[in-house]
């Protein structure tokens, strides 16, 4: 099959024909159809916009984003940034976005871990473990997420009051006010240590890369892990020690009717997190199972014949192939978890949907409120999709 | 045949204990061997088995104690007030099923007039009958569409009433399981044809139509269903001309249809893409028009390919109808949540949610099993 053998007539562009004014001409038909459909859609949209403008005028609702600068006066129970009801609506909405991200990010990490474990358990040679994982997946997938959230919230609310709180370990309290954990009093030294950790991780990655590049050149494997551990753990500890090694525990304690101090996980956040993680983990487990099963047995056997150890077969041979099957559906599960976090509004966790909903009820700015919700979720969805697509392209099979 | 006959008539060899077949050792066949291979194959497997067995036994006993042994099934009612002291005295050691006994009619049918509850009950049975008939492959023929139309019309008459001597019940008083079934059934029945059009549009060669379909699918799939439901409940009244008003249930139904269509369209598109190109080219070569090609050649094969994922998507929507709780529509879950608002019953949410969950589970589990069987049946020609 060489190019010279190809018939020159096949390389010639097809003759161009002008558009005939006849229904039999496919291109003319296509143009007419498109004009018709676009026309109908534009007409509907125009009709809706006209109605909306008219209705807004009649109801004396002023559209616009001016309300964002006004004082919100809506209390928010938990926020990652400082907030008080005297702040503006814009700040309240920012708190909502951060709360959504807080539950989505933690949820994605935990659901991935739990889902992978259950997916592997489903493939276990142990019959009892495999069946138990199967039952879990079937039951959790067949119940509405909202029902599960309400169920967990009802259980958390049914816990004893702070005075009779469950007290499984020193400084840990579980009551109907949520979970209380011991924490440290945060000081600048801790922030710098955290920064050191980030720098350590980055340096360790670069070190591993250069070691790999050297191995590619001379074939000598190099030990990466001692230096990596030194960088990742040693650097933050060193910074922390240099800055005086502050270590003041912040232990929760019962004062009167409630707790003071310590780290609080509110029942709303806790119920939402448990519900989302357990629900999504069931779907992720099925994806992981399908991914591992998609790698042919021959791959294991071939690797064993080459003398690989079990752990390295999993890491170097099976996992890279399974990931190709796992990543695309996993992306949509991450997106689902993020979108499902909007159910928080049903149990009173103040995420973006809940705060935007309160905002639109207080100000009457329905269109803006809904636009904000949609914009936030479209942005998050798009970012996760882009990141996962990039990751997918990176690990994709490079074919000839 | 001759061999078998010969063998039957031939004198059987004398059974000799020493020569006759010996049983395989129990370490190779039988339950002991099975347990050794599947439960105790290594020390780690043994540890897992023992730990799990312990936990399962403990949880099962605890659950039986809670749900049956210590449970209270009914409480006395004086002056229309349920006396729930006995339940509260249990302090969580046992279930208070009395809340379900007392409120089951409300949970199932909401605020529908009490004496007329037989009407929504028949509707629920009709819906279930409709699902069963639609699930049987021997009824997959055009007449099925007629059955659907007639059944849905009968359901409408039963729910609304006002004719044939049935008293009129306004839509605001409907509630419970029928609302869930109505939202799910109409949602899927109307979203499915729309999704086919959108999927075809997305694969169309006309750029404007393709762009519209992509925009629709991606926008809807990028936002949560709740935001669409909020839009339906808050923004939709602004969209319509003055004086024209659509009730809340219908607005939520429209939101669910639009949402479902975007997701179903992606499933259908998967089927369209999985079809070999040769099918398209062969249809073109026969000189079929676009709609002939699509209707006779492409869709019957493409839809057949995606029936299992379609059923899975249906299960998802059945569960998602519960989200209408957030905009205050009285479906099964909302009815359950409202049943425990009464002060006497506050704090017995777990019992109610377990019961409601059981109803959802029965429907979803049946669909999921059906989808697995169907998948096996449709793939039978591929398995050798």
Question: Could you characterize the architecture of this molecule?
Answer:
The complex is a heterodimer of chains A (400) and B (384). With 400 residues, chain A is of the alpha+beta class. Chain A contains 13 helices and 8 strands. Among the domains of chain A are: 25-58; 89-185 and 248-395, MetI-like (MetI-like fold, Orthogonal Bundle). In chain A, the strands form 3 sheets. Chain A has a 4-stranded antiparallel sheet with strand order 1-2-3-8. In chain A, strands 4-5 form a two-stranded antiparallel sheet. A two-stranded antiparallel ribbon of chain A has the order 6-7. The longest helix of chain B is centred in the C-terminal third of the chain and has 30 residues, at 349-378. Chain B has a two-stranded antiparallel sheet. By secondary structure, chain B is mainly alpha-helical. Classes of the chains: A alpha+beta (400), B mainly alpha (384). At the A-B interface, helix 2, helix 4, helix 5, helix 12 and helix 13 of A face helix 3, helix 9, helix 10, helix 14 and helix 16 of B.
CATH architecture annotation name of one domain in chain A: Orthogonal Bundle
CATH class category name of the largest domain in chain B = Mainly Alpha
Measure the end-to-end span of chain B: 27 Å
Name the strands of the widest sheet of chain A in spatial order.
1-2-3-8
Classify the fold: give the CATH topology of the largest domain in chain B. MetI-like fold
Radius of gyration of chain A: 29 Å
Looking at how many chains there are and whether they match, the oligomeric state comes to heterodimer
CATH architecture of the largest domain in chain B: Orthogonal Bundle
Number of domains of chain B: 2
- Radius of gyration of chain B, whole Å: 29 Å
Share of helical residues of chain B: 55-70%
Shape of chain A: globular
Quote the beta fraction of chain B.
under 5%
Helix-strand makeup class of chain A: alpha+beta
The poorly predicted ranges of chain A are none
Let me know the average pLDDT of chain A.
Answer: 84
Report the CATH superfamily of one domain in chain A. Answer: MetI-like
